Amino acid sequence: MSVNNAMTKEVISVRATSSVRDAWVVLMEAGISGAPVVDDAGALVGVLSVTDIFRAVIDRVQKARSLREATLQPSDPGAVEKEEIRELSLALRAVSEGSVANVLPKDQKVLTLSPGDSFDRAIHLMAEHNVNRLPVVRDNQVVGIITRQDVIWQIAGRPSKGQG
Fold it and tell me: pTM higher than 0.90, yes or no?
């Protein structure tokens, strides 16, 4: 079986220039945890997951914590807790107002499939690289996506929701 027979063809993608907040809304409304990221011409530039967003927030909080710990040592535990809540709030705001391109992992190797690749290749790539989704591209344009859920549906003998 080819990827073309197993992939979801109605792909939800987000633009690299979109705000993280807007991308988050798209993901939540669609009930998905990640999506291909495309440039203004529609070319694939990465894959965004909610984990990437969480990681960006955590990185900002940890940097703020390191700076705080290096500069002051308040003895009041209540003041420390208040400052940690403020740091989290500032990190959430900064990340959500930034662009999707800012939260994509800098070292991310974008793994893709073509519609003619085998279903087995998709499974092996997912397992080998521990990814949940693989964009399917033709001429650098996203024409589908295969997710772990699609794999499960195929193995169970049922078509995924986005096929057809």
Answer: no
